[in-house]
Amino acid sequence: MELTLPSLPYQLSALLLFVLALKLLHKKKATKTRSKLRIPPGPWTLPIIGSLHHLVRSRLPHRTLYNLARSHGPVMLLRAGQTDLVIITSKEAAEEVMKTHDAKFSDRPLLFTANMCNSGCDIVFSNGPYWRQLHRICVNGLLSSKKVKSLSSIRHEEVNHMLKSLSTFSDKKSPVKLIEKVSDVANNIVARVTFGGRCKRKEVFLKALKEVIEQVSWFSLSDFFPSLSQMDMKMKTKSLRTYRILDTLMEEIVQEHLEMQKQQQINGKEDIEYNLVYVLIKAMEDGNAGLPITFDSVKSVILDMFAGGTDTTTTTVEWTMAELVKHPEIMAKVQAEIRHAVGEKTDIDENDIIKLNYLKLVIKETLRLHPPLPLLLPRQCNETSQILGCSISSGARVIINGWALGRDPENWTDADKFIPERFEGSRVDFKGNNFEFVPFGAGRRSCPGMEFGMAIIEITLSRLLLHFDWKLPDSVKPNDLDMSEEFGAVCRKKIPLSLIPVLRVSLSDFGEVYNYT
Ligand code: HEM
């Protein structure tokens, strides 16, 4: 008997029916499994883009996400294109993510732009053993308590430099944009401790760095639609162009260090100046750090130190000063404390700072209301887990809304008010044990530069407040001071704080002002 095959249209319809049946079966199975697990609730979605439209127009995502979470709960799912974003907005949920299940949530997603800018081999975006190794090298080489203390003279010199420049504005009618002066302090300190301050084109370096940090610090279209990444050409070209400038400058810095090291060895000199690039070069050359440290890693880690250590500290100083001029009674109290602690001296050192309890409360309160990284840094779930009874699937990106935790009326009375006294006698601190207050994150991925950052913030603020009184320009009243935010690499003050410094305690001896080559 001859076997006849059905005609082509017939074959196609049979195939279609078969595929449909398979899909139905799969869907039924998936619904059955899903009904057992509680998928986190979330806002309504649109085909293809999911929940992205809720975020698209938002200039302040931490506030938008907080408002959405008020309707949907502390563990909220946003379907962002092809990516699941889970937003954490309560201290209980934050504790589960950063403590109970810390290991499952301590990977970082490799964001599209960061990946292009070589960041897979740095601390911020690497994972697993390579991350552990770089983290250890940086903590031992620069960020440990002992190391931070040993670098106090560098901080002192750089703050002197700023005070000297500010004193030329004293009592003049024209105000100073404080952020510009304070940025110099943070940039110079980080430049000196990471690569000895040597950078031939400092301005170009800082400009390119700022752009790259802005580009890698938030999601791009390709992060939500990985399959469209080839089409995200505009972003790609822009990021690559800026990154190449930065890479060339960093290449020069590292090569120069290698050259100087060679010269010093030839001349038999043992006292090689200490900085992080030498520490990293040594780890790279020794090759016994476990996984080999690459040349790209050395360059990317320098970037991490700038990205982590400059804008975060600068913006905290600016927000603190803004809150103080807005609250003259708190300003008077903190200045009285500092001037009393210093007594007859005309200077303050880091031993005096230990005694400045009220200043510490003021800084804590600023970090509660204005955490520089309101959404911390994104994490990625590496094993399906349960958070407050909701199932978070492996691969989901997790955002902890630290800003919302610091403003949650469940955790804080008069949550939006600046009241440093709330921390008086309280055990709540930012060291990662109190999940309602996590400006530095918590768990293994918490900020390794916390002590270094706090040392810069404390010395800068205490000396600004010791030596100067601060006046707002005539046209601005404390109550009218604009406190709007701008979300970028950090959440900074949208309108830079402009103040008139009035010299009160003379600036005796500035010592040497550091010269950049
Ligand atoms: C006011 C100052 C600072 C604040 C508020 C801050 C805040 C943060 C936050 C929220 C994170 C993410 C934590 C998480 O995901 O749980 C982080 C990570 C990080 N910070 Fe800081 N930071 C500050 C200063 C610094 C300084 C001075 C440095 C170094 C010079 C630094 C280097 C880093 C690095 C390398 C990471 C990535 C850690 C990792 O992924 O393992 N930070 N920081």
Cofactors and ligands: protoporphyrin IX containing FE
Cα distance spanning the termini: 94 Å
Rg (CA only): 26 Å
By secondary-structure content and strand pairing, the structural class works out as: alpha+beta
The spatial strand order of the largest sheet comes to 1-2-7-4
What is the beta-strand fraction? 5-15%
Shape: globular
GO molecular function, one term: iron ion binding
InterPro entries: Cyt_P450, Cyt_P450_CS, Cyt_P450_E_grp-I, Cyt_P450_sf
Family: Belongs to the cytochrome P450 family.
Keywords: Heme, Iron, Metal-binding, Monooxygenase, Oxidoreductase
Give a written overview of the molecule:
The structure is a single chain. This protein is of the alpha+beta class and 517 residues long. The chain contains 20 helices and eleven strands. It has a four-stranded mixed β-sheet with strand order 1-2-7-4, with helices on one face. Strands 3-11-8 form a three-stranded antiparallel β-sheet. A two-stranded antiparallel sheet has the order 5-6. A hairpin with a 2-residue loop joins strand 1 and strand 2. Helix 6 crosses helix 13, helix 8 runs parallel beside helix 20 and helix 16 runs antiparallel to helix 18. The chain starts with 7 loop residues before the first helix and ends in a 14-residue tail after the last strand. The relative contact order is 0.16. The structure holds protoporphyrin IX containing FE (HEM). Protoporphyrin IX containing FE (HEM) binds next to helix 14, helix 15 and helix 20. It comes from Rhynchospora breviuscula. Belongs to the cytochrome P450 family. Its cofactor is heme. Pfam families: p450.
